[in-house]
Design a protein that fits this description.
mainly alpha; 13 helices; disordered N terminus
Length: 333
């Protein structure tokens, strides 16, 4: 058995549980493997959009990223925990497939990503009327995503060939700062958090962020960790890149309106130009070349696009509902 190193400087603490399945996972990780009995039946029956499944699945996935302070690295490939994770994944993926059902028209799905969001969308609210506390809440939500931005997508690289591989790496090269550590997009978001008077510690806000945001991060890890879902990962990444530039422009405008720190503005202005270029690379060179080689993956690409859109819409609806009522969109710490 491998002895867990001192991970305090790089790994976050274990989160809090939000139900019986996440409690079982966290109780198991508090000791060395192997675990006692894990609740496979409860994992299969858990609400796929609920807090318990979101935390349990995220905790299992995080073992493949930075791990947790004080948790043995042997847990990463522990067979019993992987069996529980697989049960959670079947539950979550079945719900994603239901939500992503629709016509088999990839061009239509990609074109829909370019349609301007309707009145009342979160980027428009941030641009026109959001107060500073709402910006800070938005940053807390997105920190779970942006502080590991591009990490799950890199798993697609060994699973692609030819132009699709080369073009996806061109996009990833930008995401990782073009070889400059201070320009890595995750680092830029950390700078944004500091500029907003918030913590840039990895997963610092996890216990306050509800399931709609956690589901988006779980989607990235699910698609990234399974070769069979490589098409869905490409679809997800394409959807993220195509929709980022117009949203980032609105948010940057809102940050100028409230006089936010330049570091807060820079993260979004950096994405306006970069992701406009990425849109063409992902659509033409990555998706196009992938489907020329493997046309049978068209349905999975559609799954990635539509599942991403559905989860983003659910997060936006949660934020809008809370902010209309002038209540916090975060869980109490």
């Amino acid at each position: 058995m491998t002895t867990a190193p001192d991970q305090a400087s790089t790994s976050p603490p274990l989160p809090r549980s939000r139900g019986p399945v996440s409690a079982a996972v966290l109780d198991a990780l508090a000791a060395p493997p192997p675990p006692g009995p894990l609740p496979l039946d409860e994992a299969e029956r858990a609400d796929p959009r609920g807090e318990d499944l979101a935390v349990a699945l995220h905790t299992c996935y995080e073992l493949h990223y930075r791990g947790f302070a004080g948790v043995s690295p042997d847990w990463e490939w522990e067979p019993e925990l992987l069996r529980l994770r697989a049960a959670l994944e079947r539950n979550f993926l079945a719900a994603l497939r239901d939500e992503a059902d629709g016509p088999d028209d990839l061009t239509e799905a990609l074109d829909a990503l370019l349609v301007e969001p309707g009145e009342g969308s979160v980027p428009q609210h941030l641009r026109d009327e959001a107060e500073w506390w709402q910006f800070q809440e938005f940053f807390a939500h997105r920190s779970i995503y942006h502080l590991k931005e591009a990490d799950p997508h890199i798993w697609a690289v060994p699973r692609l060939q030819g132009q699709a591989k080369a073009s996806l790496m061109a996009v990833e090269f930008d995401e990782f700062g073009g070889g400059r550590g201070e320009r890595v997009h995750a680092r830029l978001f950390g700078d944004l958090l500091v500029g907003a008077g918030m913590s840039d510690d990895y997963l610092h806000y996890f216990d306050q962020v509800p399931a709609p945001q956690l589901a988006l991060v779980n989607l990235m890890s699910l698609f990234g960790l399974h070769r069979a879902l490589r098409g869905a990962l490409v679809g997800h990444f394409s959807a993220a890149e195509i929709t980022t530039a117009p949203s980032a422009e609105r948010i940057a405008h809102g940050l100028r309106r409230v006089g936010a720190d330049p570091a807060c503005q820079f993260f979004f202005t950096e994405h306006v130009e970069a992701d406009a270029v990425h849109e063409q690379l992902m659509r033409r060179d990555v998706i196009g070349d992938l489907l020329d080689r493997e046309p049978g993956l068209r349905g999975d690409v559609l799954l990635g696009i539509r599942a991403t859109t559905a989860l983003e819409d659910a997060l936006s609806a949660h934020l809008a509902r809370c902010w209309r009522q002038r209540t916090s969109s975060l869980r109490s710490a």
